Amino acid sequence: xxxxxxxxxxxxxxxxxxxxxxxxxxxxxxxxxxxxxxxxxxxxxxxxxxxxxxxxxxxxxxxxxxxxxxxxxxxxxxxxxxxxxxxxxxxxxxxxxxxxxxxxxxxxxxxxxxxxxxxxxxxxxxxxxxxxxxxxxxxxxxxxxxxxxxxxxxxxxxxxxxxxxxxxxxxxxxxxxxxxxxxxxxxxxxxxxxxxxxxxxxxxxxxxxxxxxxxxxxxxxxxxxxxxxxxxxxxxxxxxxxxxxxxxxxxxxxxxxxxxxxxxxxxxxxxxxxxxxxxxxxxxxxxxxxxxxxxxxxxxxxxxxxxxxxxxxxxxxxxxxxxxxxxxxxxxxxxxxxxxxxxxxxxxxxxxxxxxxxxxxxxxxxxxxxxxxxxxxxxxx
Length: 381
Fold this sequence. Notes:
The protein has 381 residues and is of the alpha/beta class. It has helices spanning 17-28, 58-64, 68-74, 110-119, 192-195, 197-203, 239-242, 250-260, 266-273, 304-307, 315-332, 337-366, 372-380, and strands at residues 10-13, 34-36, 50-52, 82-86, 91-95, 107-109, 126-127, 132-137, 143-147, 152-155, 157-160, 178-189, 207-212, 215-221, 227-234, 280-286, 299-301. Helix 1 links the parallel strand 1 (10-13) and strand 2 (34-36).
C-alpha cells in the first residue's frame, strides 16, 4: 500500500469509531492523517455496549475501509433477536434470528470494533494522551492545535470527530446540545448466564425491551456475557440531580430504581436488583435538527460533533458514514480541499438532519404516555 507524504497535513480530533474509520479509509486511498486522542491508551476506559451496524451506513464504512471480513468475524448475528413487552410482562413481539439469516443489522461490541480499526492503522497514527483545548488559525492557512499538556501541532485540515461535547465545533458554530426531556440510568449484570441463568433465558440473545407510560427498561446482551440495562424516563432536565438516587451507593440506588418501577411485572424489578455496582446517570441531549454552518477553510466535523441525536441506533452509523464520505470526497479531489469540504458538508447536512429527525421521533414514541403500543407499531414497520 503506497502512502503519500502529509500534504495536506490532516489532523483528526477523537479516536472514536468515526475518527478511526476516517483515518483508515484515507490510508486506503494513500492519504496520511494523525488522530489525536485525549485518553491515555486504547484501554483507558470502557467503550460502551453493543452497536448494530446497518448495511447502508456502518457496514458500508467497513467495506470501504477494507475491513468487511474482520467485521464479520466479530459480528453477532444472534444479536438481532428482539423481545418487546409491555410493563405488565405481556410479550408483544418476539423475533428470533435464524442461523442463516442475512447480516442486515448484526450487533457488534463497540470495543471489539474499535480494536479492529486501531489494529488496521500504523502504531503512531493515533497519538494518545493529547486532549484538544483550542485551535488558532495560521496566517498561511490551516490551524495550530493546542493541547492540554502545553504542546501544539499544525495542520492544513482539522476534523472534529470529538463527540457530543466537541471542542472543535465552536470554530464553526455556537450551537450546543440541548436536553430533550429524557434521562437514562445505565446498570448491568455481569456474566449473566452463570450468575442469573433464569434472567439470561428471559432476556435472550439480543435486545429485550419493556415499555410503560413515560418510561422504559432495555436490556442488551453483550458479547462478553454482560447484559447492560438501561432505564429511561420522561422527566425534567434536572431530574438526575433532584431525584435523590444515590449513584455512589449502588445498593441504595438499586432499591430506589426498583421503587420507580413499582407496579411493573416482577421480572423487570428482578433485572434491576440483579445489577452490579455500575450505576451511571446519562442525560439525553441533541443538537438542533438541521444544524449547518458557513463553509470554513480547513475545518469540518463529523458524527456527534456535527449532528448529535438521541441514542436509538443511528448515531454511530451516521458517524461512520460521515467518515467514509469525507474520506472518499477528499481522495477524489486531493488538490481542491475547499471544494471537497463543501461537497461533503452539503451532503452531510442533509443526511444528518434526516437521521436526527428520525431519531427524535423514535425517542418520542419510546418514552411517551402511550406506552408500548406505539413502539409495537414502530417495530412492525
